[in-house]
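re: that chain from earlier
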Amino acid sequence: MVTNDPQPFFPDGEPFHIAGVHSAELILKGKNRPFFEKILMKNLRLAISRLGGISEVQQTMGKFLLPLAPGTALDDYRHMLSRIPGVETFFFAHRLPHDLAQLKTFLRRLAAGMDKVPFAIRTRRSYKPFPMNSVEINRELGAVLVAEGWPVDLNRPQRAFHVDVLKDSLLLYSDLFRGCGGLPVGSSGKVVSLLSGGIDSPVAARLLYNRGCRVTYVHYHNQTMDACGVRNKIHRIVAFLQAYQPPSRLYMVPFQHLQKAIVSFCPARERMILYRRVMFRIAQRVADKEDALGFVTGDSIGQVASQTLENLRTIYSVARLPVFTPLIGMNKQQVVDLARHYGTYDISILPYSDCCTFMLARRPETHGRVERMREVEENIDLETLEQEAFHDAEIITF
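^ sequence. v structure.
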């Protein structure tokens, strides 16, 4: 039984020894499975080291085992494991030797602190030489709890006790928690996120994590607008997202000079389209430097004026790499719900000055044309300004 219960049963008297991780999608990878599992193991070790825990991860019998140090804060581990791409389910387990009598005694002592609700025993005998099969183990352990007054319900138990028979030990656990699934970060290449600081783009980046992509971030800022506040907010967003992937970089690109040039030659109605075309061309330079294979944005069709189909076509036409838009068919409430789920919402709603709103018309263009934007761009030496902005970008490693 998989639970998302915020109050899991963590017994005080019987400390857990192991956190166990199952991966589901990786099982379907055939001969490529070891490649994905190696990356997931690396990411688990990195995440544990960030918690200050023991980073020795053991892979055995289709699962990953993470040793827990005495006094481990289980809530910290639970929060971490629920957010690492590639983790389908996880559990906290007691580790015992291959001794059924000892397992029975331990189960009886463990169950004494629980409510006597309908239960089931679920045994998985990964280590086949163990002298008893799964049905026999279930029967022996079930008899222990029945003798203590526990009712049996094999179909819909309120509490399931899981036993994993490994080569060197037995694992006993009850609560099985849901992870975010997907593919481990680093298994699908690298993308560049155009990070605005709003609600949408962090969610889009997070969704690309779940498909195994490493993300490099680019943020464009107007140095005359609350520079410290903008910097702090973007740093917080990236630091939060970075908890779920290996080290990456944030490019803080100054946009002030480009905006002044665009304002001088571009009608107010079309400035947002031109701003974003310039941003993609600078992001292309970042992608070339980072060996990225695509871009990710938080665009959603029709959500704002710059995201009509015509405008998106005109903006994306300058990109030399694929543009991934995982939110493209979502409405705002769906995106907000995802932001809350992933934990980025509270940071994203902090006030900040968005450089994209600088000197725009009250009724911006919604039917942008590629040919028209090329005509406007001929009046400005954008290539020089874009190169300067890229050269002056502050690069921060997380």
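DSSP finds 13 helices and 15 strands in the chain.
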